[in-house]
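hey so i finaly got around to running the thing on Large ribosomal subunit protein uL10 from Tamilnaduibacter salinus. pasting the sequence first so u can double check i didnt mess up the copy paste, my clipboard has been acting weird all day
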Amino acid sequence: MAIRLEDKKAIVADVNETAGGALSVVMADYRGVTSTDMTALRAKARSDNVRLKVVRNNLARRAVEGTEYECIQDALVGPTLLAFSMEDPGAAARLLKDFAKENKAFEIKGLAVGGELMGGDQIDRLAKLPTLEEALTRLAVVTQAPITKLARTFNEVPSKITRAVAAVRDQKKDAA
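ok and heres what it spat out for the 3d tokens, dont ask me to read them lol
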């Protein structure tokens, strides 16, 4: 079906705006995936703040011009689903990796972060990144560890004195 020029411009502008604000993009071949599965994927993507775009390759190439995702232009071959992570760089990678485990027809073609294009086999590099909450938790634990150790050390001094006094008392009691 032919798309009017105005519609093409709108599609390019929408994808360009999405790419401009995205932290990462994952590309996948969705051939052979049922519409029911794609609907479930789209619902999960909305809850994870991942924007899925299925756009003609020529329009996608134009849309990513001027963004840090220009590197994906050569990889846009065949039916391509673009998944843009908007808040968490690893969200799209985790989402599509999990979906690919359940759907054998779904194939991850590649991903891009910070202007660097990586193959689909590199999906774990991005999928294993901690979420913002996990990263903050780890930072809090690392920051809290020295303070906890210092408190234990300060608490140990009175305990040692108490044990020493008790030992001297017991020794004098035994001597008497």
